[in-house]
Automatic annotation (TrEMBL):
<keyword id="KW-0012">Acyltransferase</keyword>
<dbReference type="InterPro" id="IPR016181">
    <property type="entry name" value="Acyl_CoA_acyltransferase"/>
</dbReference>
<keyword id="KW-0963">Cytoplasm</keyword>
<dbReference type="GO" id="GO:0030163">
    <property type="term" value="P:protein catabolic process"/>
</dbReference>
<dbReference type="GO" id="GO:0008914">
    <property type="term" value="F:leucyl-tRNA--protein transferase activity"/>
</dbReference>
<dbReference type="Pfam" id="PF03588">
    <property type="entry name" value="Leu_Phe_trans"/>
</dbReference>
<protein>
    <recommendedName>
        <fullName>Leucyl/phenylalanyl-tRNA--protein transferase</fullName>
        <ecNumber>2.3.2.6</ecNumber>
    </recommendedName>
</protein>
<keyword id="KW-0808">Transferase</keyword>
<dbReference type="InterPro" id="IPR042203">
    <property type="entry name" value="Leu/Phe-tRNA_Trfase_C"/>
</dbReference>
<dbReference type="GO" id="GO:0005737">
    <property type="term" value="C:cytoplasm"/>
</dbReference>
<dbReference type="InterPro" id="IPR042221">
    <property type="entry name" value="Leu/Phe-tRNA_Trfase_N"/>
</dbReference>
<comment type="function">
    <text>Functions in the N-end rule pathway of protein degradation where it conjugates Leu, Phe and, less efficiently, Met from aminoacyl-tRNAs to the N-termini of proteins containing an N-terminal arginine or lysine.</text>
</comment>
<comment type="similarity">
    <text>Belongs to the L/F-transferase family.</text>
</comment>
<dbReference type="InterPro" id="IPR004616">
    <property type="entry name" value="Leu/Phe-tRNA_Trfase"/>
</dbReference>
Amino acid sequence: MVPWLSPDAPFPPVERALGASSGAPGLLAASADLLPSRLVDAYRHGIFPWYSDGQPVLWWSPDPRMILRPDEFKVSPSLRKTLKRVLRDPAWEIRVDNDFAAVMRACANAPRHGQRGTWITADVIDAYSSLHRIGDAHSIETWLDGQRVGGLYGVSIGKMFFGESMFAAVTDASKIALAALVAHLRRNGVELIDCQQNTAHLASLGGREIARKAFIAHVRATVGAHAIGWRFDKQVLADWIGQGHADNSPVPTL
């Protein structure tokens, strides 16, 4: 039985989430509220919300957990060429937190293979925008000729980054934003990006699954660290590309 959380009730231990044999593996709890304080508490415990419009707020902690280690990020030859072009051409920009809510809306409207609708509802946008205003959520945006053409957003607590969603209006625009994020996180000693659930796209970029126990241990060890800064642009890519590292090799420290 999935517990219903009152506004002041704490989350149950993640080990109580439904198992693989259930119809909803990883489902931990449900609630009516999506308050910023509840969201921050959830991420600090390795829990995230995911639900459809009209449902209660459903809280998840799946086992295994999909993650991407910045030093395992895979760069294909074609993406490397694109990144070099981004660095050369001033028409390309990487902006951070230029318009957080607009990135969320773009992610909500992005088509997803095998999915109908979106979980990024107006209430979700409001809740994460509140986290953005207090400095716990950020957007990394790819711009071309003055137009936002891709990006991603997520939650940053201590030395842990929890990825939420990304979109691309032109080829590789979201990958450019992700590459910039990876370079920035490596520069700041962040060792793991939470990707929540397994997708072929994330796996192609170096994402992989780890046991929930290991994931939770890493979260506990990193969320209490000093928060990293979020002022950067496409220059974070320059040293990386200049290293001339081999295809699909680990990204060198910036």
